Amino acid sequence: MKSIQLKMARAAVGLGVRELAAAAGVTANTITRIENGADAKQSTLDAIRAVLEKDVILLSDGETTTGGVGVRLRSLT
Q1: Which has more confidence, 16 or 58?
Q2: Which of 20, 56, 70, 77 has its CA 20 to 30 A from that of 46?
């Protein structure tokens, strides 16, 4: 997960830093550091990604037909 993906995903679902951190079991500072480009353990990224993808977000790795990294709202129907 790229830092910009995390920012876009949070914005798309309307989660604040503290809300996402609590749901993922990490600190708000961790979310902020990742969004600012710092490295994080894979387990931390996996926990954050799981929270975001559980309900509405799919994170593209850029190697699909989307043409680059990004986020997409999951169909709610």
Answers
A1: 16
A2: 77
